[in-house]
Amino acid sequence: MNVYDSARMADVLAPLGYVRVDAADGADMVILNTCHIREKAAEKVYSELGRLRRLKAEKERTGRGMILAVAGCVAQAEGGEILRRAPFVDMVFGPQAFHRLPEMISRASRAGGAVLDTDFPAEPKFDHLPAPGKLEGYSAFLTVQEGCDKFCTFCVVPYTRGAEFSRPVAEVEAEARHLVAGGAREITLLGQNVNAYHGEGNDGDWGLGRLIARLAEIEGLERIRYTTSYPAEVDDALIGAHRDVPQLMPFLHLPVQSGADRILVAMNRRHTADDYRRLAGRLRHARPDLALSSDFIVGFPGETEADFEATLRLVEDVTFAQAYSFKYSPRPGTPAAALENQVPEKVKTERLARLQERLGAQQVAFNQGCVGRALPVLLDRQGRKPGQLVGRSPYMQAVHVEAPDHLLGSVMPLTIGAAHANSLSGALTGAFADERACA
User: Which of 23, 77, 414, 437 is deepest in the core (most CB within 10 A)?
Assistant: First the structure.
């Protein structure tokens, strides 16, 4: 989501003469686009600001300035604190305000002091953004929904991103067509709670399943993905899209967070562990080759060993191709941060290691199960070795293959020959294999 927002910031800044560079050294402007979902992510902001302060000072000594800005969710949550701890920062603005960048730059230049903009706009920022700029690569992100109304007790998103908002169907479709015309072969639909999408269509509100079916009609769009999902918002139409829309990839990130009902209630999640099991079964019945990934929080306040064992049982029952797992991190201002019975750090560390061992074994088994299969792979970049291309399988695995460069941007059938720790390797099949031999 921050990748998408960062690209849109670049689009907003382009008319002012700004172009993106690969490093902060020598840049006229540096924007840290930040995440506040875990404590470690927020801490990195202040560490990076210390390094950038030196670069900013060096530029000023040469008679040139550097505008230093902090954007995103840390800016939204800690705007005043950032300016207190890092008074050399020129601009601090939240994720709903970046369409006002030209105005902020002008204010910072005129006033010579810091600009703080963390107000939620009366009108959606998307109404004020230019068309997306030139696409880099063959995959694109497209935000269709923002914000969240669920108020999970551990989560800052409702406070930093605001209430749920869905972009109109016509607006989403127009941006998707623009991206495909610019070379996108795969689009990932984004939202903090993406399957709560209820965008205005020509005959009322549309859900995510219907939106996906409409986008699948765009010629040249070969793959559709979406993230991040909320289990209780997966409806029949979305499950039907997994069954009926071949462009929708058979890989779904569906965060469960815990396998213990008592903890799920304390988290204010709106599903039980068995609800999740049943939902996984329905999705796999609709699309038998579908694989799941998930999020897990270990050591939520009050979590007992029995609660943790319930999470391990759910992992064994459902099985995951990938997963993200973290120790609970108290976020200031969230209800869970004030709960009693905080789990000791040592216990969280031990439980996380056990969970990750189980999840890692499932990922290895899934990758090994791909060996010998023919998978369609979108070849989207050159590899490190001469004559090598790299792409993504339907299951988001990196796949390496010896192939000529003119196949970049193509979805090619590859026979998977080996599974590695974090990737697969494959070979072109049939006539394409002969082409490689002649290349």
Answer: 414
pLDDT tens readout for residues 39-84: 777 788 988 999 999 999 988 888 888 999 999 988 998 888 899 9
Q: Residue 438 — pLDDT band, cuts 50, 70, 90?
A: very low
Residue type, 139: S
For residue 418, what are the contacts with CB-CB under 8 A and spacing of at least 6?
371, 424, 425
H/E stretch holding 293 reads: strand 291-298
Is pLDDT of 436 > 70? no
- Comparing CA positions, the residue from 319, 326, 336 lying closest to residue 263 is 336
Closest CA to 425 of 409, 294, 248, 385: 385
For residues 6 and 28, give the distance between their C-alpha atoms in angstroms, rounded to a whole number: 16
Q: Which two tokens stand for residue 335?
A: 């209800």
For residue 384, the cross-strand partners are none
Give the percent of the chain with pLDDT over 90.
Answer: 75
Question: Tens of pLDDT along 168-196?
Answer: 999 999 999 999 999 999 999 999 999 99
CA distance 193 to 233: 9
Token pair 């023919």: residue: 374
Structural Rg of the chain based on CA atoms: 23
What is the number of alpha carbons within 13 Å of residue 392 lying toward its C-beta? 19
3-state secondary structure (DSSP) of residue 362: helix
Residue 139: which residues within 8 A CB-CB, separation 6 or more?
184, 185, 186, 187, 188, 223, 378, 380, 392
**What is the predicted pLDDT for the residue at 439?**
40
User: What is the helix (H) or strand (E) element at residue 107, kind and residue range?
Assistant: helix 101-111
Number of H helices, E strands in the chain: 13, 19
Task: Tell me the whole-structure pTM to 2 decimals.
Answer: 0.89
Structure tokens at 371: 């060996």
Kindly tell me the sign of the dihedral angle through the C-alpha atoms of 264, 270, 275, 280.
negative
**414 with 375: CB under 8 angstroms?**
yes
The predicted-structure confidence for 395-426, as pLDDT tens digits, reads as follows 999 999 999 999 999 999 999 999 987 899 99
Q: pLDDT tens for residues 268-280?
A: 999 999 999 999 9
Distance CA 270, CA 316 (A): 22
Token couple for 108 = 């910072």
H-assigned helices in 287-429: 305-318, 345-369
| Cα–Cα dist 369/374, whole Å | 11
237, amino acid identity: A
Neighbours of 270 (CB within 10 A): 14
